Please model this.
Amino acid sequence: MNRTEPPRWLRWTLVGVAAVLVCLTFGVTTAKADLSLGPHEATYAVTADDRLIADLGPLGTVVTDSPLPLTLGVRITVHEIPADLSAVDTASFDALAGDLDGYLQFFDSPQQTVTTVAWALVWDAVRGTGAAALFVVAAGFGVRALLGAARRRDLARALAARTWEITGAVLVVVLVAGTVTASAGPEERAALPASPVFEGTALEGARITGRLAGVIDTYSSQLVETYQANEVFYAGAREELLAAWDARVAEQEAAEGAAGVPGSESPDDAGYLTLLVVADLHCNTGMTPLLRDLADRLQPDVMLNAGDTTINGTSVESVCVDSFASAVPDGVPFVVADGNHDSRLTTATELANRQIVLDGDVVEVEGVRILGDRDPLETRIGGGTVIAREETPAEAGERLRDVACEAAGEIGLGGFTAEDRVDLLLVHQPAVGDAALESGCVPFQISGHMHKQIGPDVVGYGVRYVNASTGGATKGNASVGPLRDSSEMTVLRFDPESRRFVDWQLVEVTPEGTAAVSERQPVPPPVPLPDEVPDGVLSGTGPSPTPSPSGN
Model:
């Protein structure tokens, strides 16, 4: 019986499609990512079951619908829950309640966790697919070499004659595999009722199994009540912030119009750069929507972060960095000087979000010359504060002073003028900038750390401004949930012609949920430099700086 063999191009196309499907299936179904779930480290793995299953070990599981397409699901294995837990009682849940802030971060911004996890799984799937493709290609060449030319021709003729049968068999296998690995049907799902405790939260519709199901209604009420209070507080604060900002902008425009002369240039049109400053966010992702709204209204040229984005610099806090990064408008540079509560893990996440992390060198951002570095200290809850680098804060300040003076102009070769200096020193601890301000090599410094607004004050031959906590953090208290202290952000304007900061404006949200935006206030002028600065370093005859303690 004669068979009509398909053309060669079709046979190779079918082979290629089959190989791609196999590689893609392998890459997708083996994708894994080690990230976080609330306060816990967790492993996310793609499954062929279109459910999201959080495995809490002996406590049971939380089951909800999968956010992935097709019949793909996710299994989350949560770590740090004791494997030998034999009973679920008040004591064990009291221990879990200690992580309430971490759970609240997840409830408050679940979409950020989902986005972070999704991208991590996609990239791992791409890597797995690529590895499988390399294996298939290598295996193909290996088999080709082993068979020899004559045997390959015979085998090709035999397979070509049965192309359609082989194609049909592959389709049957795919369909059977899809049926076998498909998730439970509606009847099985209906047998597992949704937990009413999650109604109105990001996990609405989730179903609970195991020991957790019997006690979740009682012991989760604290978390859900906190979540609901959090939602109400920040929704109201968000409205207050937008109203306060819009009212202040209207006042400014009216004042500028009344004072202006027809045809004159208003301050907003004078070519000033606008910078938005935040500091000490401390993982309070409840502030992310407010920060996003302010940035959208303001449309700054640059955003500055004076450090302490996280609480303990752990890997599970990467979702906080991702959340704050989502508030930055597209195309706006976000410059960071990491604080004592951040870590190298924090830095890595910031770099992954395309942020500019200062590391001791001068960088030029939108025409502003910025110098800064990560904090020389590390503070860990329960572990105290230690020196994280081979230098003290004072030594770090002297190093940054020398970098600033060298950048300002030819140390030992004739001195420099005010226009030659770096424009801004951005460091977390205010005291680290003492040497640079006293030297005359830095005209303006921005810091955080103190959790209160200080200045702008003249220090040495420069001006220092300390931003309060944008996360509303107070010493010894968590910064997650409704604000315990005022959250503050600062708007600065910079004149690129005179190379100086001209004015500042405070944006504040209070623990009562009210908001206020101050009038623009002039930045005090620094002490003038002498006509020539020998050796690039001055002796510091300006006002003495106020020392700042470490550990906040």
User: Anything to note?
Assistant: The chain has a mean pLDDT of 77. The chain has 14 helices and 22 strands. The longest helix spans residues 221-259. The two ends are 86 Å apart (CA to CA).
